[in-house]
Write a structure and sequence with these properties.
Order of helices and strands: EHEHEHE
CATH superfamily: Alpha/Beta hydrolase fold, catalytic domain
Low-confidence stretches: 100-117
CATH class: Alpha Beta
Mean pLDDT: 77
């Protein structure tokens, strides 16, 4: 069985719950007999050092530490929108993700359920 960690980064004015309908759609896409799928949605405003008041550099370092402490699957998929997307780009532009992730994947599914995320 393949284990996958999905890590969702919400926008500046968003909440982890913004991803709920996306998570439900992803669950449908992965056969439970073949995949163990875990979902993580850190909350910037309630997780120390991931808050928007910190510099991108500090948040990037803290986020990579958060990933290594809180997620355990070898395959990790990072999904972000708005500030979360920008943060993800910054992290992988400035840091070497290979120390933290064996593989970076991009998962995209068009969902016609509103405009955000």
């Amino acid at each position: 069985m393949t284990e996958i960690d999905f890590i969702f980064l919400h926008g500046f004015l968003g909440l982890p719950s913004d991803w709920n309908h996306i998570i439900e759609d992803i669950k449908i896409d992965f056969d439970e007999k073949k995949f163990k799928v875990n979902f993580y949605c850190p909350d910037y405003f309630n997780t120390p050092n991931l808050c928007p008041k910190c510099s991108f550099e500090k948040v990037g370092n803290e986020f990579l530490s958060w990933i290594s402490l809180n997620t355990f699957a070898k395959k990790k998929i990072l999904v972000g929108y708005s500030l979360g997307g920008r943060l993800a780009l910054h992290i992988f532009e400035k840091k070497s993700p290979s120390r933290y992730m064996n593989r970076l994947s991009i998962y995209f599914k068009a969902v016609a359920k509103g405009c955000a995320p």
